[in-house]
Design brief:
eight-stranded mixed β-sheet, 12 helices
Length: 324
């Protein structure tokens, strides 16, 4: 790049959003979109747990929580391009967005190929139940559409180990500890020397540390409440025993040493985003860590670049195939 061009780009960085948009134009080796960063609680700014990982030309969706279809649309993702969906476990807040993604992608957007679900034991039963729930739509709504593709959902139930491998992308599942959510798993996604790890819902477990050691990005669940809050809501202490506190997360980060740690599936109670980071620092972690936001994008390559959620103003309605 010539000196004049370098100086021009440097001067343009004073314009809001310009440098971020330039970073987006480079092709990262992997891209993570934190579609939904919340838990089962209803909040104004965080929808249900869902993480999209792009590796090459492959789109892999991990969990399908409340509002996932909306967040995909807002993130300008081609919805019918979502075929492979992986579930950390089968708690409702990780699966409740699946029916709208499946149904709307078919009858409104012209999906012409089946979904492929990867999940723990019980995933096939979940898929069968979803088909039964939508019997009326499947049988009557779109008489001339590819109904057989709609009715057929491929399911792979896994235990642990490599569960997906295609065109250089490898997804491995490892067991974690989530008490009444067990069997529960985290995922390690590897592509051309880059590694992204998703903790899933878990308390501190050695298997997570082992899987995340040296990863480029670790996406980590977290739950935090003050002592005063927990004194008033003792039931939350029980929930906290099956998730990761900021102090436990700091321990995982310190031992695993990812290039970037990103909080998602965030249950803050009365602790702010700033408070999460402060407690992580107070517990001794000095590495790079961010608190995830819905639709935050993380580009993973030689550099790791975190992009704030883009504006959703001016998005056109998606009403027919080819517009999403």
């Amino acid at each position: 790049m010539g000196l004049i061009r370098k100086l021009l780009l440097l001067s343009l960085c004073v314009l809001p959003g310009f440098c971020a948009s330039q970073a987006q134009t480079a092709s990262p080796e992997m891209r993570i979109t934190l579609l939904g960063t919340g838990g089962p609680e209803l909040t104004a700014h965080r929808l249900g747990s869902a993480t999209l990982v792009q590796a090459g030309d492959q789109l892999l969706l991990f969990d399908s929580g409340r509002g996932v279809l909306q967040r995909l649309y807002e993130s300008r993702v081609h919805i019918t391009g979502i075929t492979n969906i992986f579930f950390t476990h089968l708690h409702s807040d990780h699966i409740e967005g699946l029916p709208e993604l499946w149904m709307t992608g078919w009858f409104l957007l012209g999906r012409d190929h089946p979904l492929h679900l990867y999940g723990p034991v019980g995933t096939q039963q979940m898929a069968d139940g979803m088909l039964q729930m939508y019997t009326h739509d499947v049988n009557t709504r779109m008489g001339a559409s590819p109904v057989e593709n709609m009715k057929h959902i491929d399911v792979t139930e896994f235990a642990a180990g490599v569960i997906f491998e295609k065109d250089g992308v490898r997804v491995s599942a490892f067991p974690v500890e989530h008490e009444d959510g067990n069997p529960a798993f985290g995922f390690r996604i590897a592509y051309h020397g880059r590694v992204v790890v998703l903790s899933g819902d878990t308390t501190y477990t050695q298997s997570l540390v082992d899987a995340a050691r040296g990863a480029d990005v670790l996406v980590q669940n977290v739950m935090a409440g003050s002592d005063a809050y927990l004194a008033k809501a003792p039931a939350k202490r029980v929930v906290m025993q099956k998730l990761t506190t900021p102090e436990q997360a700091a321990r995982v980060f310190t031992q695993a040493k990812p290039r970037l740690a990103a909080y998602s599936h965030i249950i803050e109670m009365d602790v702010s985003d700033k408070g999460l980071l402060q407690r992580t620092r107070d517990a001794g972690y000095r590495g790079r860590v961010v608190v995830g936001l819905d639709r935050m994008v993380i580009d993973v390559g030689e550099r790791i670049v975190v992009h704030a959620p883009a504006s959703v103003r001016g998005l056109a309605p998606v009403t027919k195939p080819g517009q999403d």
